[in-house]
Design goal:
Elements: E1 4-10, E2 27-28, E3 31-32, H1 33-43, E4 48-54, H2 58-68, E5 73-76, H3 82-87, E6 99-104, H4 111-122, E7 127-133, E8 142-145, E9 151-155, H5 162-165, E10 169-178, H6 179-186, H7 202-209, E11 214-218, H8 230-250, E12 268-269, E13 274-275, E14 280-281, E15 286-287, E16 292-293, E17 298-299, E18 303-304, E19 309-310, E20 315-316, E21 321-322, E22 327-330, E23 333-339, E24 344-347, E25 350-356, E26 361-362, E27 367-369, E28 379-381, E29 386-387, E30 392-394, E31 397-399, E32 404-405, E33 410-411, E34 420-421, H9 433-448
Parallel strand pairs: 1-4, 1-6, 4-5, 7-11, 12-15, 13-16, 14-17, 15-18, 16-19, 17-20, 18-21, 19-22, 20-23, 21-23, 22-24, 23-25, 24-26, 25-28, 26-29, 27-30, 28-31, 29-32, 30-33, 32-34
Antiparallel strand pairs: 2-3, 6-10, 7-10, 8-9
């Protein structure tokens, strides 16, 4: 297979977002728009990826550098159009021999929609362009076609004649060509147009004039989800969620109210899982077969084992590892704790840093006191242990297998297996105190009213 590279255009200012956060770092399904574009390029098999960023948004360049390394960053300064942006990546691709696909960082377009461009290249097209038929073409560039899939030129809407504006075949902004051919064509692009910019689209007309083969592949319009405003960001999120919910149900996940379930980009849910209403998955969650996620639960960075029951109103934070058939109930928060098979924490508890052994029972109101203001410490509850209600386990501490702690205890020392630990004040009873107290308070009130 011919080697592949990608140039991702990410230099736009995104002023319509009206946000201090650069547009491309806004998230859909818990992942930055830019990362979605990089994911697609990697899924296409691109061995080299160059992201063209603007000097106005150093945070975008830093984001790329962190993920792909400094060699993946090319800066367009000043911004002089899409053709000029691709030229900014020329040095980064020096020495690369193969096909280059030019993509957009804010398009939310997956690899399957772009893959046909490489098929056209393999079939002899010198330049392959991705298009779509638009119900309302608006400001999109128009694809002027010859016979079949032959593309003659692309006309920007601002430069189009009335008959060209009537064309519904539109340019996606994505194309592929051999690296040497692409940059040779770009070197000939001028800026004699309404915006005074160097258009990437002009390479099509130049290729046609040079008797090169230019062909077009089409994808459904709904696959193109450009994001230029907060409203379009929300629309992209909605579109992602709709696709993900449909796929989950096709895969065998039961959701009585799918429109209320929100997935992250990397959520993994096995067939046979039930997800009730108003559940949110943040990134990093895996749910195994037979588990039930009950209503109003929030999961992030967690694993839920087979047959486990989570919620309602549960919160699993990063590092939560819930074992087979374990129960994490209402208003229970788990963070960085491995919960063993069949263990239960059914009510009103915080479990942070440590482990809970198989079959253990965590009583209502139990707190793992894991933080002293500077450092975190672990709490370990052994297999079959029983933690009484309203217990505070002050880490670092271990409760041995089969041990009990009395309700209301503050456990500060290790408890040996099968022992009972009690750590609470001795109850003192003063006979008649309450009656005397009430009588005194009533006399005081009566005297104040005279």
């Amino acid at each position: 297979m011919t080697a592949r590279a990608a140039v991702i255009l990410a230099a736009g200012k995104g002023e319509r977002m009206k946000s201090p956060t650069p547009k491309l770092l806004h998230k859909v399904a818990g992942r930055a728009l830019l990362d979605h574009a990089i994911d697609a390029a990697e899924a296409l098999g691109c061995e080299k990826i160059v992201v063209v960023v603007g000097a106005h948004a150093p945070a975008v360049g830093a984001h790329v550098e962190k993920r792909l390394g400094p060699a993946a960053v090319a800066v367009q300064d000043p911004p002089l159009g899409t053709g000029h942006a691709v030229l900014a990546a020329k040095d980064a691709l020096a020495g690369f021999d193969g096909d280059v696909i030019v993509t957009l960082a804010d398009g939310m377009l997956g690899a399957p929609a772009m893959a046909p461009l490489f098929d056209l290249r393999a079939d002899g097209a010198d330049v392959a362009v991705l298009g779509f038929d638009a119900a309302e073409p608006g400001a999109y560039g128009r694809l002027i076609l010859g016979g079949g899939d032959v593309l003659l030129r692309i006309v920007e809407a601002k430069d189009a004649r009335p008959d060209e504006l009537a064309v519904t075949a539109c340019n996606s902004g994505i194309l592929a060509a051999d690296r040497a051919v692409l940059f040779d064509l770009l070197s000939k692009v001028g800026n004699d147009n309404a915006k005074g910019e160097y258009y990437l689209t002009d390479v099509v007309g130049l290729a046609t004039e040079a008797a090169l083969s230019v062909r077009v592949a089409f994808a459904p319009e709904e696959d193109f989800q450009g994001v230029n405003s907060q409203a379009e960001l929300a629309a992209a999120e909605a579109a992602f969620q709709a696709r993900r919910r449909r796929q989950a149900m096709v895969d065998g996940v039961t959701m009585p109210a799918p429109e209320t379930v929100w997935f992250a980009w990397d959520t993994v849910v096995a067939p046979g899982v039930t997800i009730e209403q108003n559940v949110v998955f943040a990134p990093g969650v895996t749910v195994e077969a037979g588990a039930v996620i009950r209503a109003f639960s929030h999961l992030e960075g967690a694993r839920v084992g087979p047959g486990a029951l989570i919620g309602p109103y549960a919160r699993l934070r990063p590092g939560a590892d819930i074992g087979e058939d374990a129960h994490i109930g209402n208003f229970v928060e788990v963070k960085k704790v491995k919960v063993g098979k069949g263990a239960k924490a059914n009510h009103l508890s915080y479990l942070g840093d440590g482990s809970v052994g198989a079959g253990a029972n965590i009583g209502a109101g139990t707190i793992f006191c894991n933080y002293d203001g500077f450092d975190k410490f672990d709490t370990h509850v052994g297999e079959g242990a029983f933690i009484g209600s309203n217990s505070a386990l002050v880490a670092p501490v271990t409760v041995g297998p089969g041990a009990y702690t009395g309700s209301g205890s503050v456990i500060t020392k290790d408890v040996t297996g099968d022992a009972l630990a009690l750590a609470r004040p001795v109850q003192v009873e003063k006979a008649g105190w309450a009656a005397a107290f009430r009588a005194r308070k009533l006399r005081e009130r009566a005297n104040r009213g005279r």
